[in-house]
Amino acid sequence: MKGICILGATGSIGVSTLDVVARHPDLYKVVALTANNNIDLLLDQCLRHRPELVVVADEAKAAAFRDKIAGTAVAGTRVLAGAEALAEAATLDNVDSVMAAIVGAAGLLPTLAAAKAGKTVLLANKEALVMSGNLFMQAIADSGAELLPIDSEHNAIFQCMPSAYKTGVTAQAARRILLTASGGPFRQTPIEDLVHVTPEQAVAHPNWDMGKKISVDSATMMNKGLEMIEACLLFNMKPEQIQVVIHPQSVIHSMVDYIDGTVLAQMGNPDMRIPIAHALAWSGRFESGAEPLNIFNVRRMDFEEPNLERFPCLRLAYKAIEAGGTMPAVLNAANEIAVDAFLNRRVRFTDIPAIIERSMDAIEVKAADSLEIVLDQDKLARTVSNRIIDQLAG
Questions:
Q1: Across the chain, where does the E strand assignment appear?
Q2: In terms of CB atoms within 10 Å, which of 49, 62, 86, 342 comes out highest?
Q3: Is 319 part of a structural domain of the chain?
Q4: Residues 237 and 331 placed together within one structural domain of the fold
Q5: pLDDT tens by residue, the chain, 394 residues
């Protein structure tokens, strides 16, 4: 039986992971759960899965959670708070696998700690890899940790790679990656109307059930830009070898094009339990709980090139990875700040890429030689982005 820590247990990936784990109680034991604010759901999860450690955002939340579990069957559960506690949860001796599902830059430090500790890292957090890039991949290599991608697209690519493939290594016969995207809710919206998009419209994804931030990233296609950067690192390929393909049905989750002309595609219903189960069962397979794909209901599959006028965030992601160094971290930080401002109605939907590009242009790229440099640039990008937002909102 393997011990698992779930970073971000109350988010959509965390909930789906616990659903899959519950189907295989003889294979996995939940050792640690972490959450930000949803301590009511966290309590339900603890009562069902009985972790030995729980980590929440801050000490006030920890105190509130200790009150909640008093007198329950999990009253003895250890409850900690803060960033150091997240790293502790991810590196416990009896944790074999870490589901890294904390959204945003907050997931970087505990995910990197898991990598350095040699854990099997199930990577659902784009930002950890986008921000720290080669530092993260070097930590995986140095510790002998196993890195398995959870994003549906990267997991699909992984499944289409040769047998015994290991992330971080170039598959010599692979010519390019076809990274699929749904196109989000505004794929066919007149470009001139995007300025009027509301947060409610932006989070209403047509195919996937995701959190607010990720849903907005899908609407701008920044999620695909971050995934492109991630794919370069995970599969050791150049940006020009990653081609984004809009596929609105979300049946094909990505493809790998080989030098002999073969294109392998991974297909399935849009259910995150499929890649989660694949990674948990690796190198075998087991039941995920997802409905089997009925190919006769698919009827048709469409493919189109992304319009960079409609989706400028995708262009900015290619610009960031080509600049290299700390620029992907700047891109990510500026996007987090801009999306938050949009969700709080401080800026317009079309301001998001403008804020990101102005931030990138204002910050000099540096070599990402250390985590300290990356975090400093992340902090600087947030300061610059907030200043630009204040100008726009004022």
A1: 2-7, 28-34, 53-56, 78-81, 97-100, 120-123, 146-149, 174-181, 242-246, 252-258, 263-267
A2: 86
A3: no
A4: no
A5: 999 999 999 999 999 999 999 999 999 999 999 999 899 999 999 999 999 999 998 999 999 999 999 999 999 999 999 999 999 999 999 999 999 999 877 888 999 999 999 999 999 988 788 989 989 999 999 999 999 999 999 999 999 999 889 999 999 899 999 999 999 999 999 999 999 999 999 998 666 666 788 899 999 999 999 999 999 999 999 999 999 999 999 999 999 999 999 999 999 999 999 999 999 999 999 999 999 999 999 989 999 999 999 999 999 999 999 999 999 999 999 999 999 999 999 999 999 999 999 999 999 999 999 999 999 999 999 999 999 999 998 7
Return the DSSP state at 311: -
User: Using CA atoms, how far apart are residues 306 and 85, in angstroms rounded to an integer?
Assistant: 41
- The whole-model pTM stands at 0.92
Binding-site residues from annotation for NADPH: 10-13, 38, 125, 127, 211
Question: What is the spatial distance between Cα 110 and Cα 52, in angstroms, rounded to a whole number?
Answer: 18
Same structural domain, 88 and 202: no
382-387 LR contacts (CB < 8 Å, sep 24+)? 382/333, 382/334, 382/336, 382/337, 384/334, 384/358, 384/359, 385/333, 385/334, 385/337, 385/338, 385/355, 385/356, 385/359, 386/337
CATH number, residue 350: 1.10.1740.10
Domain assignment present for residue 370? The answer is yes
User: What SS3 class is residue 7?
Assistant: strand
Domain that holds residue 357: 324-394
Same domain, 33 and 163: no
Residue numbers belonging to the annotated binding site: 10-13, 38, 125-127, 151-153, 182, 205, 211, 218, 223-224, 227
Task: Return binding residues for 1-deoxy-D-xylulose 5-phosphate.
Answer: 126, 152-153, 182, 205, 218, 223-224, 227
Examine the domain organization and report whether 131 and 175 are in the same domain: no
| Domain identity same for 299 and 189 | yes
Of 124, 149, 174, the domain-final residue: 149
Report the domain count for the chain.
3
Annotated binding site for Mn(2+), which residues? Answer: 151, 153, 227
Task: Let me know whether 273 and 163 are in one domain.
Answer: yes
User: Based on the domain organization, do 155 and 144 belong to the same domain?
Assistant: no
Q: Is residue 316 part of a domain?
A: no
